[in-house]
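Workshop exercise sheet. Pairs work together: one partner reads the sequence aloud, the other fills in the structure field after running the prediction. Swap roles for the next sheet.
Pair: D.N. / O.F.
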Amino acid sequence: MSGGYRFLEHVSDVFLEAWGPSLEEAYRQAALAFYEVLTDPSGVLESEERVVEASGADLEELLYDWIEKLIILFDSEGFVARSVVVEGIWREGDAWRLKAMLRGERYDPGRHSQGTHVKGVTYHMMMIEANSPVKRIRVLLDI
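Structure field:
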């Protein structure tokens, strides 16, 4: 089974659900959904790479930190990814860790469609199903 994502109904923000056979795939799909909110990823070239690392005391905090790092990367460098590879999610001491490789480029309003700017990620309505065959997450993005 491969992973995927979909957007769920919400009155004022972006509510997304992502899934996959592993936590790595579910978190990867959440990142792909995030980038789809910003722009059409089919127009993004994979000319630059970024390594992103996130951490958290639990899987919810890890998800929060992961999406927050993507927001910061976009806000500080204008970087949008077309492909995301979550290389691993593991427990290290008292913390969860994530390491990922992003391939994309800087957002160019002349070439990339304008989507919706994401201001932040929230814990409200966040859900992670990590103990089932299909790992499923839901996260609300503040726009």
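Discussion prompt: The first strand starts at residue 4 and ends at 8. What would you look at next?
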